[in-house]
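Continuing the series of single-chain predictions for the mutant panel. This is the parent chain; the variants come on the following pages.
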Amino acid sequence: MIATRLHPDKHIAAQSIAREIATLIQLRSKSGKSTVLGLATGSTPLPLYAELIRLHRDEGLSFRTVVTFNLDEYVGLGPTHPQSYRHFMEEHLFRHLDVPVSQIHIPDGLTNDAPHHCATYEAAIRHAGGIDLQILGLGRTGHIGFNEPPAAADTRTRQVHLDEMTRQDNSVFFGDLSLVPSAALTMGVATIMEARRIELLAFGEGKSAIVHRAMQETPSAKCPATWLQRHPHCTFHLDSGSSKQT
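Parent structure:
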């Protein structure tokens, strides 16, 4: 069952989630354990990342015991490409924190052997002990990560074809639809569902219809976000716009 938390706005939501992450890091650090975070990209998590940076800068929150795994990356984009998710994460989070470089994991969009690379990515998550807390956004197609419909519950990290709606939505970052890659590497639904906690962020009226579907439709491959209904600890963080149809 999906729990919901209604926030006055995305910035207050970011502050709340950042505090939860900070508490998790501090508790696990005291026990001599690392914290494994699953991270997302796009505009939705930016206020959250800004708040994590503020906690590090102003309140001394250390990320040295944190291990990160990003959900996805565009096929064909290298780490220096301005629209690659590696570049996005460096600019908006990692270069502002003290996370050791060796503990940052992002799929390689330039890999020459996607199946092997994706299997290695899965193995790295297992080796780290699994993801403690996964941050998710929600695409208008119902995708989580880049798991476009149809996406079965047993899917693992793999190369996928991007839906045209997703490419159109992301074209605002590229300047032109023709520049948006048509494929990506993404964690699978099963990979995401193995995270011990999932925090999904969706804000604005434009997300209200897909939030409703994700929470109310019978879980199926035609709307991958519906699989989250089967997670024991999944929370949707919403505002007045995105919660209008719930």
